[in-house]
Every structure is written in structure tokens, then in C-alpha cells.
Design goal:
Layout lengths: L15 H11 L3 E5 L5 H10 L5 E7 L12 H18 L3 E7 L2 H10 L9 E5 L2 E4 L1
Helix pairs in contact: 2-3
């Protein structure tokens, strides 16, 4: 990833080799991210999947306080997410990002109700709470 993104944390570098291997094997067209924070993993997915063809990612996060993140300024985190995603989309016009500001249970229920979580997708663990939908 290039230096023009804004991140305060790095939860991606440690799993990046595994993700690259999975992406080269699966060439995913769609992804679901639960817990998007500043968008680092979404940007990674866009940068590595969009060159292979059109790519869609749905990012779910509350962008609000959680017990594991004491003292985080969530407005700043969400603003960084928005800027990072805008930069990634500008570089990869064939990428689509659906941002859902909600808790994961409600968001997933709504996606299922809208028919966006079809049974033809096959989830694979991407690390922590990330899921890849092919």
C-alpha cells in the first residue's frame, strides 16, 4: 500500500502474506468486512482484488465506542475511513464500497433481508472478524 493513506493502527501487515495467497487462489469479486475501523484491510482488498476485475466490498462498523477501544475519537476514525476509501476508489474505479454504519447483527440481518447475502457465497476466514465472500 502506498503512503497516501492515513492510519493510526496496523492490523493488516501480519496477515498480508496469507491474504495475498488467498486472493491469488480465489480472485474474489466480493468481500464482507465486519469491523472496518480506518479502512486499512478494505484498502488492501481493493488494491489487490480490483486489478483482477470488478470488486465490491461491504464494510460494517459502528464507528462508535466499544469496550476494547477506550479513548478513541470515533469521528476522526470514521473520517479517516472515508478518506482512505475515497483514495482507494479513485485509484481503482472498478471498485464499489458499501459502508454500513451499524452493529454487525443488525447489518447482517438487513443484508440477508435485502437478498445481498446469497447462499452462493462461500465465506473463508480472513483473520479476526474479517470474512471473504467469493
Amino acid at each position: 500500500m502506498t503512503d497516501d493513506y492515513e492510519y493510526s493502527s496496523d492490523w493488516v501487515s501480519g496477515v498480508a502474506p496469507v491474504w495475498r495467497s488467498m486472493i491469488s487462489s480465489v480472485a474474489p469479486r466480493r468481500a464482507l468486512e465486519i469491523g472496518a475501523f480506518e479502512g486499512r484491510s478494505a484498502v488492501f482488498m481493493i488494491e489487490h482484488c480490483a486489478p483482477l476485475g470488478p470488486f465490491e466490498i461491504t464494510c460494517i462498523d459502528t464507528w462508535g465506542s466499544g469496550p476494547e477501544y477506550g479513548g478513541v475519537n470515533w469521528a476522526d476514525v470514521e473520517a479517516r475511513f472515508d478518506r482512505n476509501i475515497a483514495r482507494a476508489k479513485a485509484k481503482h474505479a472498478n471498485s464499489t464500497v458499501q459502508k454500513i454504519k451499524s452493529d454487525s447483527v443488525s447489518a447482517l440481518a438487513n443484508l440477508i433481508a435485502q437478498g445481498q447475502a446469497g447462499v452462493t457465497t462461500s465465506p473463508m476466514s480472513m483473520g479476526r472478524t474479517k470474512r471473504l465472500m467469493c
